[in-house]
Amino acid sequence: LKAPVEAVDAAIGAALRTHGFFVVTNHDVARGDVEALRERMKAFFARSAAEKQQFKLDLSASAVSGHVALGAEASDVANLSVTGDDKKVVPKDLMESFQFCDPRLKQQALPSDELRAAFDGVYKQFRAQARALLAVVERVLALPAGWLVDKHAARGAHRTILRVTHYPPLSRFGLAWRGADVGVVAEADGKAVPAVAQRIGEHRDLGTITLLWQDDKGGLEVAVDAADGTRHWLPVAPVEGSIVVNTGLCLMRMTNGHVKANLHRVVVNNDKANTDARYSVIMFVNPDDDAPMASHEQFGDRVYPEDGTAGDYLKCKFTQIFDPTARAHQKGCKYRD
């Protein structure tokens, strides 16, 4: 990000027009602070399931926060565009996570003051970096100054969260990686079970942009669709100290589909995953709850006709991801992407 503005804009503009992913270096997030947070969270994830559930996810307000247990997410329900129907059963994601909300919104339950301070510091740094990146996106798309950034002012309720994700070793699930055959789904008692080479299935992020700090394990892949209709998966190799940025469904809606929210997944790419865990630190940058989701007029007649705010949209989608009964109530949500 320290390169000339023209070069930065050209690179990010190209990414927005194609696969919606780019890697940022020379940013303003302190590597030491992120790594310190990750180390503290390793200790948290090592606790018993009962201990971790003392801090279970709270969806009661826009300030979403807390721990999500292994296999408790349902990204396939929130991503109807991935599954194509309401009945398809997809592999459970082999991960658990902890969500940290804006500390100005509420004092969420955390195991220690030290962990609170670590989360608070990293949240503020990611938030400031996200605002700077939104300004670049706004400029690249030739939007009026403030049109996009002001939708993320965080002056009131909003659902921008910082997440630490833990992907346990495959051995914990009785699985093992024995090669590069990704995407094979076995059947057990008539239900799909995880492919041995996949840690989280293909999905699109819900928000405006996502900022991801990877560890050195790798495994993130992005879908690239060729002109002939074939799909390839492009690895996003870890770059030390970098942040991976990708676009989400909110930005796709606010640009009337001009910016793509691309499919991505996390796979196992070597046999170290049989015994080694993977960790990531992520900020999901979402608009303020009262921000309108309608696209700007420069993008033409609206492809997405539903009225409503970002709060309406994300409340529906967060419920679909985290509510155990979400599949049964899926059609109650008017947002069908």
In short:
Strand 9 and strand 10 form a beta hairpin. Helices cover 26% and strands 19% of the residues.
Lay out the secondary structure.
Elements lengths: L4 H13 L3 E4 L6 H15 L3 H4 L13 E3 L6 H4 L1 H4 L12 E5 L12 H28 L20 E7 L18 E3 L2 E3 L4 E6 L5 E6 L5 E6 L5 E5 L7 E5 L1 H6 L9 E4 L10 E8 L24 H13 L15
Antiparallel strand pairs: 1-11, 2-3, 3-4, 4-13, 5-6, 7-12, 8-11, 8-13, 9-10, 9-12
Helix pairs in contact: 1-6, 2-6
Structural notes for this entry:
This protein is 26% helix and 19% strand. Strand 9 and strand 10 form a beta hairpin. The chain has 8 helices and 13 strands. The model is unreliable at 76-90 and 182-194 (pLDDT under 50).
If you compute it from the alpha carbons, what radius of gyration comes out, rounded to the nearest whole angstrom? 19 Å
Report the strand count.
13
Query: Which sheet architecture does the biggest sheet show?
Result: 7 strands, antiparallel
Overall shape: globular
- The largest sheet has its strands arranged as 1-11-8-13-4-3-2
How much of the sequence lies in strands comes to 15-25%
Distance between the termini: 32 Å
Give the helix level as a range of percent.
25-40%
**Distinct helical segment count:** 8
Q: What would you call the structural class?
A: alpha+beta
Average pLDDT works out at 85
Task: Give the SSE order as H and E letters.
Answer: HEHHEHHEHEEEEEEEEHEEH
Uncertain segments are: 76-90, 182-194
